[in-house]
Amino acid sequence: MLHGYGWSLLEGLRLTLGMAGASLAVALLLGLAGAAARLSRSAFWRGLALIYTTVVRGVPDLVLMLLVFYGGQLAVNEIAPHLGIDEYVDIDPFVAGVATIGFIFGAYLAETFRGAILAIPLGQAEAARAFGMSAPQAFRRIVLPQMVRLAIPGFANNWLVLVKSTALVSVIGLNDMMQKAGQAAGATREPFTFYLAVGALYLAITTLSVLVLRVVEKRCSPGVRAIHL
Amino acid sequence: MSLDAIADNLPLYLQGAWTTLRLLAMALLLGLAGAIPLAVLRASSKRRWWVPVWVFTWVIRGTPLLVQLFLVYYGLAQFAWVRGSVAWPLLSSAWFCTVAAFAVNTCAYTTEILAGAIRATPPGEVEAARSLGMPWGLMVRRILLPSALRRALPACGNEAVLMLHATSLASIVTLLDLTGVARDVNSRFFLPFPAFITAALFYLAITGVLVALFRRAETRWLRHLAPIR
Predict the structure, then answer these.
(1) CB contact under 8 A, A196 and B165
(2) CA nearest to B167, candidates B217, B95, B219
(3) Interior angle at CA A126, CA A124 and CA A130, nearest 5
(4) What per-residue confidence (pLDDT) applies to A68?
(5) Is A227 domain-assigned?
(6) What pLDDT was estimated at residue B229?
(7) Fewer beta carbons below 10 Å: N end or C end of chain B?
(8) B229 vs A207, which has greater pLDDT?
(9) How many C-beta atoms surround the C-beta of residue B21 within 10 A?
(10) A18 is in which domain, residue-wise?
(11) Percent above pLDDT 90 for chain B
(12) In the predicted model, is pLDDT for residue A107 greater than 90?
C-alpha cells in the first residue's frame, strides 16, 4: 500500500520524535527559568521574562522558525570571521528547529509553571522557611513536587501543541515525516495516501501521550480528592 | 538601507495583513457556524450523537494542521474522480483549500470549547425552561446557547489568537499572507531579520487588537459573572 516507503516514513518518525524530545528538554529548562524570572523580586528579570512570554506567544511559530533559520544563518556568518573561522558556516536545520521550538514552548511552559506555582498556598513555603530550610531547599522539597501535579494539565496541552508543530520543520528543509511523505508522494503520485499515513502516525503519538499523561497525573495526585458531578 | 527595502514593500505587507485577516475571519466564522450544532451533539448524553462528533474532534485535534492542509491541497488530486468532478476548479485553488482546512480545524477546537461550556450550564436554567413548557429547539436557541456562548468567550478568544497564528501556514501553499510576503521579501533582498521581524510586529499588533476586542466582549456579555469589587 505504501509502495515500500513505509520504512522511510518510520525513519522520518524517528527524527520527528527526536526533534520533539530535544525541543521539550530545551523548553523545560527555559520554562522553569522563565517562571522563576516572572516570579522573581527583581523588576529587571520580571520585565525580561514578561517580554519573552508575551512576544513569543504573540507571533506565529512559523515566522519565528523562519527568523531563526535564515536570520541565525546570517548572524552566525557575520560573527564567524571575528572568531577566526573563515569558511561559510551552515546551520544544521535540526539545531535550528530544536532551538526555535524549544524557545517557543519555553514561553508557553513558563506561563504554565507560573500558574502552577501561584496555585500553591504561600503558607507552605513559609512553613518550610520557618523550619529552617533555605529558599532553594523549600522550592525543591515543598513547592516543586506539588507544582508538578498542578502543572500537568497545562503541560499536557503544551506538549501536544509542540508535537504537532514539529510538522513545520519540513519547511526549513528537515527530513522529518512530512518531508519523507512529500518525497514518497512525488515518486508515487499518491499524496493522499502518504499524508494520511503521516496523520495517522501523529494521531498515534498524541493519543498515546494523552493516555500516558493521564496515568502520570493520577500517580502524582495521591490523596487528592476530586468532585464527581 | 535595509529599512528602505522594508519601507518600499510596506504596501505589500499591508496587502499580506489584509489576506491574513480575511483568512482568519472566514475560518473563524465558518468554524463557529459548524461548531454550534456539533457542540450540542457533543454534549448530548446519547451515545449515537456524541461518539461521531468525538471521533471528529479527536482526529482533527490530534493531527497537525499542516498535514490536514496538505491532505486537502495536494492529497485530493490523487483521485481521478475528484479531478474530473465539477468542484475541481474550486478544489485546486490554494485559497479554497486553505480556508476549508482552517475552518475544519478551528471547528473541531471550537466544538470542544462550546461543548464544555454547554456541559457547565446550571441545570436550573434548563429545568426552568422545561417547566415553562419550552420545546427542545426553542430551549436550545433561547436558553442553552446564549448562556453557553457567553461562558465560552474567554476560551474562544484564545482559539482566535491561535487561529491567527495558524494562518501563517497559508504561506506554505503559495498564498501571499503576512508570512508569505515576509518570505518573499527575504528571498528577494536576503534580509531575514527586517523581513520577518516586520511580519512579527504585524502579528503582535493583530494579536493585541484581538485580545482587546475579546476583553471588551467579555465586559459586555460576561458582566454577570465578573467578581464583585
Answers:
(1) no
(2) B95
(3) 120
(4) 87
(5) no
(6) 62
(7) C
(8) A207
(9) 16
(10) 6-219
(11) 76
(12) yes
The verdict on a CB contact (< 8 Å) between A195 and B169 is: no
In a domain, A153, yes or no: yes
> Is A36 part of a structural domain of the chain?
yes
Within-domain flag for A225: no
Residues on A contacting B at a C-beta cutoff of 8 Å:
55, 58-64, 66-67, 70-71, 73-74, 160, 164-168, 170-171, 178, 182, 185, 189-193, 195-196, 198-199, 202-203, 206-207
The number of domains in chain A is 1
Task: Give the ranges where B74-134 is alpha helix by DSSP (H).
Answer: 80-83, 88-91, 94-119, 123-131
Report the mean per-residue pLDDT for chain B: 92
The structure's pTM equals 0.90
Beta carbons of A195 and B75 less than 8 Å apart: yes
Q: Give residue ranges of B with CB < 8 Å to any A CB.
A: 58-59, 61-68, 70-71, 74-79, 161, 164-169, 171-172, 179, 182-183, 186, 190, 192-193, 196-197, 199-200, 203-204, 207-208
Rounded to the nearest 5°, which phi and psi values hold at A29? -60, -50
Return the ∠ at Cα A208 (arms to A202 and A211), rounded to 5°. Answer: 145
- Whether residues B63 and A202 touch (CB distance < 8 A) is answered with yes
Complex confidence, ipTM = 0.90
